[in-house]
Design a protein that fits this description.
Layout: E1 2-7, H1 17-28, E2 34-41, H2 51-54, E3 63-67, E4 70-75, H3 81-89, H4 95-108, H5 118-130, E5 135-140, H6 144-156, E6 160-164, H7 178-192, E7 197-200, H8 203-209, E8 218-220, H9 227-232, E9 243-248, H10 257-270, E10 277-282, H11 287-297, E11 305-308, H12 313-322, E12 325-329, H13 338-345, E13 348-352, H14 357-366, H15 379-387, E14 390-393, H16 396-413, H17 428-442
Parallel strand pairs: 1-2, 1-5, 2-4, 5-6, 6-7, 7-8, 9-10, 9-12, 10-11, 12-13, 13-14
Antiparallel strand pairs: 3-4
């Protein structure tokens, strides 16, 4: 059996969509003749919000877990000065000072071996001194892991695969000025050039990343859903008491959340009696900010909107299986990850929007990837069309009409029908099989 060393910063029990991809490798690689050794950091879910990302680990020792299908090595995590200040004083105090410390570590970690993630490199180096592996597989971001893989590959003469969940240099939020862009481009080209194969999740990302590496081999390994988790909840029926429209994950600045809330409020006010309907958000970022938004600007929605803190993925799937409709904001050239769980659960997807004036303005102002001349600008809509899994909403006017139609269907039938097809192609198990083929090829 081949052995692969996987560097993955985000990994369960930390609740993060970024951790689901390497976790699926750990779950399924052994079924395809590859033994995974995952090196990650120690995580806890004490806070169930952003503080979990910066909370120090309980142990200062490396923890090793041996399982039937793989090994997990969890490294200790110590806070840097910026994170200590953030935990003690909150987001609103000493922001400028925190940024200085964060920028120092962000820059210097690419030149010397320091920073909050260096323990992953040290543990990987120690493991490789005493154990042979056939390949190193690194999932980014954080992209400092690409530097670690480059160094380990060079030291131990082991091929490695650079797996991009997101672009690096081309991401505007990361390269917000010319200097930072040039620095990121220098680091990216220097480290990733040594990779045997570059993998990423969409053709659009390949198109962007390939501009830096025109001669490198690229393979598309899409994200997907976990068939083990979804099979456990496949027989749970929809809730029939309240039409529940649910959203999972991060709300980005280009998402027209206020437009959706405004339309939802208009629908509520149009009903002659209080409707049996709920808009539910699971594990969103900046939850307090959105609670305040609802209280200040959409107060009449207070009893119709629920915000649920982050919960483990298996419990989340149980909640979602009972819900009736899934809200999906347009990622345009991204697919994101939540669409795949939506597909697996076979609930109707509501995609907002493809051509809404307010949505277009937000995209123009905040969208973090340049899509100019790209042929992949409506990938979620294409998946929904291909699988017959939902409604592609053009704008706020159509959304109001859609709310009315869905509510009428729910009152009449007690559920919302979804006649999706061919969703099995998005199983993470299938994608793990494809990744194993690449590992065997280069090892």
């Amino acid at each position: 059996m081949k052995k692969v060393l996987i560097l993955a910063y985000d990994f369960p029990p930390y609740v993060s969509v970024g951790g689901l991809r390497p976790y699926s490798w750990f779950q399924y690689f052994h079924e395809f003749g590859v033994y995974p050794i995952v090196i990650t950091r120690q995580w806890s879910n004490e806070h169930r919000n952003f503080l979990d990302y910066i909370a120090p680990s309980e142990s200062e020792e490396v923890e090793v877990g041996e399982y039937t299908h793989g090994t997990i090595i969890r490294t200790p995590y110590s806070q840097n000065i910026s994170n200590k200040m953030l935990e003690k004083y909150g987001k609103n105090k000493y922001a400028f000072i925190r940024k200085i410390f964060t920028a120092y570590y962000e820059i210097m970690q690419y030149h010397i071996k320091i920073g909050p993630k260096i323990e992953i490199y040290k543990a990987a180096q120690e493991y490789l001194k005493n154990n042979n592996v056939d390949c190193i597989l690194t999932s980014g971001e954080p992209f400092i892991l690409f530097r670690y893989a480059h160094l380990l590959s060079k030291e131990f003469k082991t091929p490695w695969i650079a797996d991009y969940r997101d672009p690096w240099t081309q991401d505007k939020k990361r390269s917000y000025d010319t200097i930072s862009r040039l620095l990121n481009m220098f680091w990216e080209k220097r480290f990733v050039e040594s990779a045997s194969i570059i993998t990423t999740v969409t053709p659009f990302f390949k198109e962007k990343i390939q501009t830096l590496f025109p001669n490198k081999r690229f393979e598309i390994i899409p994200n997907g859903y976990n068939p083990t988790s979804t099979s456990k909840v496949s027989n749970i029926p929809q809730n029939s008491d309240v039409l529940r429209i649910s959203f999972v994950g991060t709300i980005y600045k280009w998402h027209p959340i206020e437009s959706v809330l405004r339309v939802f409020q208009t629908f509520i006010h149009s009903q002659s009696t209080p409707p049996r309907i709920e808009l539910r958000f699971y594990g969103i970022n900046n939850a307090e900010e959105y609670k305040n938004l609802i209280l200040l600007r959409f107060n009449s929605l207070a009893k119709y909107v629920s915000i649920i803190p982050k919960i483990q993925n298996e419990q989340l799937m149980e909640y979602l299986a009972k819900d009736n409709v899934f809200l999906l904001f347009n990622y345009y050239s991204y697919t994101g990850t939540k669409i795949y769980d939506y597909l697996a659960l076979k609930r109707l997807i509501l995609l907002c929007y493809t051509d809404d004036s307010e949505g277009n303005e937000l995209k123009e102002k905040y969208y973090n990837i340049d899509e100019e001349n790209s042929d992949f600008q409506q990938v979620q809509a294409e998946i929904i069309t291909q699988t017959n899994s939902g409604i592609i909403v053009k704008d706020s006017t159509q959304l109001l009409h859609t709310f009315s139609e869905l509510y009428s269907e729910f009152i009449q039938n007690g559920f919302i029908s979804c006649n999706s097809v061919n969703t099995e192609q998005f199983s993470r198990k299938i994608q793990a099989s494809n990744m194993c083929s690449l590992i065997k090829e280069i090892s």
